[in-house]
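Morning. Coffee machine broken again, so started the prediction first thing and wrote up yesterday's gels while waiting. Chain of 188 residues, entered below exactly as on the submission form.
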Amino acid sequence: MAGPRFNVRSAVDSARLAFERLTQREQTMVLGGAGAAVFLILLGVGLLVSGAIGRAEDRVRLKNEQLTEVMQLQGDYKARQAERDARMRELGGGNIRLVSLVEETARQAGVEIGQLKPDDSEPNADGIIESRVDLKATNLSADRLKDFIERLENARGLVITRRLKIQRPYRRDTVDLDLTVTTYKKKM
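Came back before lunch.
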């Protein structure tokens, strides 16, 4: 162990002796150069550390933005899930017979239905059945048509007008109506 220590000590001693042999001006130049070298090394290390910190801050900011977005999407999902559950309860609670509803509404509005064609779809993955009725009525006045449509839209349960086609026969004050109304119910 004494060997390596001796070599380091002798190297330091020889460097000190060489430094002392230099003139005052040369010693100042060596010290200035050594100071500049230390400064450049510290500056390089500082820039590397600063760059690493900046990249880490950018990653943290990006992760925070992503987390905020995920939390917002989670809130939206929960709200939509609650809305969906409420609609499913609404569909499960009402058992609307669409044909009867359309006939009753037409009778109340004074509309004579010429053709009535009901159709039920197969249940989807959630157990929802679409019930549809296509109907045709002729010789409707504007006020009876308006009353009929309003009564259908304000009927109990969920009734949706899917298609409404109004034709006006030549030189008449009445219209012919092709209408498709739909409701949804939960399969029991």
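The chain has a mean pLDDT of 85. Going to sketch it on the whiteboard this afternoon.
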